[in-house]
Amino acid sequence: MSTNSKTKLLVISGSSGVGKGTVIKSLLEKCSNINLSVSCTTRNPRPGEEHGVNYFFLSKEEFKESIANDDFLEWAEFSENFYGTRKSYIEKCLNNNQNVLLEIETQGALQVKEKMPEAVLIFIAPPSIEELEARLRGRQTETEDAIQKRLNFVKLEMENSKKYDYIVVNDTVENAVNKIIEIIGV
Ligand code: 5GP
Question: How far apart, in Å, are the Cα atoms of 45 and each of 52, 88, 174?
Answer without folding.
Answer: 11, 23, 29
